[in-house]
Design goal:
2 helices
Length: 271
């Protein structure tokens, strides 16, 4: 029998997760079937994998499983459904998660360095609560075309590919209290955000040195104190962005940036 409707995340012993769970509820429709494998079966598949024959979990339904502390490095999880699964302190370095559903996943301490997350969906991520306090690590990851709404302050995304990523809030989906993406103090030096939609997100004091920001949408983004030194901002849209203390020293393409005349606190930016 199939089920329909909406489901909130389980809150077993994880203080401070309730809000993030309600956020996930706003976005994620309930899967029509249970997970195809148990957590023990997934662990067995990964344990028997090797560099020559990596674990193949492509397009598997692994929703709502506790897959914490598993080494998925190099595994194939393309198109996998990981909705609401607990991936706490798991290692996905170099793994293929292209097109995967990671909505509502628990990512405290998870490692995604060098992973392929292109085209994946990452709405309502849970990164607070429980014993593990470390942020997920996306350094050098391929997040091109990702759809993400999440609280990721202080997160390492340096050299990540976020081209055409959709991190902006869809105002039409605000009826259930969806938060905006928070990348304040995030490490984004050398990242590729060309054509990314970051509208209405918070990027205060983010490190964007040398980043590719060409044609990125910073509409109403809080960029106060952010460091864009040496970044390429040609055709980027700064309409209504807060530029209080934003550093543009050595930035490229400033003359081709859009909406600077409509940005807030432009006179307080550092050029």
């Amino acid at each position: 029998m199939t089920r329909a409707g909406w489901r909130a995340l389980p809150l077993r012993g994880a203080p401070g997760v309730a809000f993030a769970a309600s956020v996930a509820l706003s976005f994620v429709a309930l899967s029509s079937q249970a997970a195809e494998l148990t957590a023990d079966q997934v662990r067995a598949i990964v344990a028997h994998a090797s560099a020559a024959a990596p674990a193949d979990l492509a397009r598997k339904d692994l929703s709502d499983l506790d897959l914490s502390n598993i080494d998925f490095a190099g595994a194939n999880l393309a198109g996998a459904n990981l909705f609401a699964s607990r991936l706490v302190s798991s290692n996905f370095s170099g793994a293929n998660l292209s097109g995967a559903n990671l909505n509502g996943t628990w990512l405290m301490g998870a490692q995604f360095a060098g992973a392929n997350l292109s085209g994946s969906s990452m709405l309502g991520l849970v990164i607070l609560g429980g014993a593990v306090t470390a942020r997920p690590n996306f350094a050098g990851a391929n997040l091109s075309g990702v759809r993400m709404i999440a609280d990721l302050p202080n997160t390492d995304l340096h050299s990540a590919n976020l081209s055409r990523a959709r991190l902006g809030v869809d105002i039409r989906n605000q009826g259930m209290g969806q938060m905006r993406t928070d990348l304040s103090n995030a490490k984004l030096a050398g990242a590729n955000l060309e054509g990314a939609d970051l509208s209405r997100s918070s990027m205060a004091f983010a490190d964007l040195r040398g980043a590719n920001l060409r044609a990125a949408n910073f509409f109403a983004v809080k960029l106060a104190g952010a460091n864009l030194s040496g970044a390429d901002v040609a055709d980027a849209n700064f309409t209504e962005a807060d530029l209080d203390g934003t550093v543009f020293t050595g930035a490229k393409g400033l003359d081709a940036a859009k909406g600077m005349d409509k940005a807030a606190n432009r006179e307080r930016a550092v050029y």
